[in-house]
Structure formats: C-alpha cells, structure tokens
Amino acid sequence: xxxxxxxxxxxxxxxxxxxxxxxxxxxxxxxxxxxxxxxxxxxxxxxxxxxxxxxxxxxxxxxxxxxxxxxxxxxxxxxxxxxxxxxxxxxxxxxxxxxxxxxxxxxxxxxxxxxxxxxxxxxxxxxxxxxxxxxxxxxxxxxxxxxxxxxxxxxxxxxxxxxxxxxxxxxxxxxxxxxxxxxxxxxxxxxxxxxxxxxxxxxxxxxxxxxxxxxxxxxxxxxxxxxxxxxxxxxxxxxxxxxxxxxxxxxxxxxxxxxxxxxxxxxxxxxxxxxxxxxxx
Length: 281
Known about the structure:
This protein is an alpha+beta fold. The chain is built from 11 helices and 4 strands; from the N terminus they run ααβαβββαααααααα.
C-alpha cells in the first residue's frame, strides 16, 4: 500500500511539473508554451533516469566497496539482507556536516550515502539506526518521490528566471513583463509546495521501520539527537536547499536563514521523532 501511494505521488509530481512549466511558459508569452512543454517532457525523463546521480554528484560522493567501505559497508550489507532488500550502492560524501540520505528510483537501483562527518561522529549502534532508516525509505519506495521532488523544486525557480531573461520581460509576441515577473516570483513558491507534497509522515514511518530493521530504536534515537545538535554547529555546505527532504535530518544551510528553512520544513521536528521512537522501547 505504501509503495502504491508513493507511486501515485510520483505520477502527480511529474504531472504537476508539466503543468507548472507549461503555465510558466504561458505567462511568459505564447511563444514559450511549446518550448516549455518540450522542456517539461525532457525534464520528466531526466529526473526519472538521472535524479539519483544528480543527488549523489551534488554531494561530491564517492562509491565504496567491501574493501574501501570498512565497517560502514558491512553494516549496509547486513541490514539490507535483514530487510530483504537488494544490496544498494554505498557512497561516502566528504562533507563534515553529519547527515545521510538514500536515493534511487527502485530498490534494485538504490544508493545510500553518508557524510564523512556522520561516520566520524556516530558509533556502530547509531550508524545502524541511520542506515536502517535509509533502508526503510528504499523499501517503501520513498526515494524516487523524494529525489524527484528535490530535482523539480530546485529547477523551477531557475527555469522561471531563465525564461524571464530570455524574453518574458519583452512586451512582444504575447509576452507580458508583469506576468513574467510574477512567474519568476511565484515559481519558488511552487517549488516549496512541491516539497510540501512529500508528507512528513514518511519520516515517522521510516523511523519506526528503520528501528525494526536495526533491531532497536535506541541507536536511531541517539543518532538523531547527535545529528541534530552537530548539524547546527556544522552547517551543510551544499548549494541546493531543495534537496533538504532527502536527508535524515533537515540540513541547516549557512547560506539560508534558519527561520526561512522552518517555514518550508520538509521534516517533522526532531524532538517529535525521538518521542515517537521512545514509545517503541
């Protein structure tokens, strides 16, 4: 049932992307409708096949194997077997901000990525809790929906600005500079709404199922406490806040005010997640 719901979310997200881009094209001028429709189709194909690669590349992550991944790789291998999942690709991001995410359009195409900061911060039990949480996302097929939402949200604002600069500001062939300006302003809001389409409840489900995969909620509880505290001390230096919904704890980005992030938070408050996990003890 969870997989079906997430598949429907994916269809709605891709359909919403098409509608939004065509709508932006119409606001910029009739001559932009067909190019923006073609762009929407190309982007739909791109996010379907390459969104996971883009997410991994944006974090500068490198793939590791049984030899280079050490205990981290062995934990993923053991918990994937326990969760009855195919072995995902395993990555390490060089970022010192402690965090982790999973991506991929299906369990057979999935990847898990943990930052260097998280590997240095977390003990084995805590790392097991984090990996269990990410494998739960993979098992429930949250990863495709979340990665597509991140890709769409990150693209909308730049597409609107690009269209405005290319000709939306010129009052010819149907272009309306006021409407084009509105498109440029409201595209980021559309992006935020797309992010909001990814229900926060998926984090509670992944927490509970991840704790079951790990064998206990204790490791994840401790990991969430430490990740939340350290992520505020070491903001994640990544250029695309639209990716925030992918991570196990919502990153604090040094370039974006924390109050703004809370307005469009993609995760439930960490203390509520910990309280829910504590009830499983």
